[in-house]
Specification:
- By secondary structure, this protein is of the alpha+beta class.
- It has one domain (2-62): ATP-grasp fold, B domain (D-amino Acid Aminotransferase, Chain A, domain 1, 2-Layer Sandwich), CATH 3.30.470.20.
- Helices cover 30% and strands 24% of the residues.
- It contains two helices and four strands.
- The protein has helices at residues 2-7, 50-62, and strands spanning 11-15, 19-21, 27-29, 38-41.
- The radius of gyration is 14 Å and the shape is elongated.
- The relative contact order is 0.22.
């Protein structure tokens, strides 16, 4: 995730994921991978909120 965000000019600050276990003890990621779970810094040092981050990512991906 860090590498992909860097390719878009963003620095990953941190993120969270939720995990769960099945009855056999196997671990599963139980959260989506979206701007809702991470904080990034743009090229100007700004930390966009979740909605602005999603819009920024979509704009960069459409180029």
């Amino acid at each position: 995730m860090k590498k992909e965000l860097a390719s878009l000019g963003l620095t990953l600050i941190d993120f969270k994921i939720e995990v769960g276990y099945d009855e056999n003890g196997k671990i599963y990621v139980a959260d989506e991978i979206t701007p809702d779970i991470w904080r990034v810094r743009d090229e100007n040092g700004n930390i966009p909120n979740q909605i602005d981050c999603a819009k920024m990512l979509l704009a960069k991906l459409r180029k």
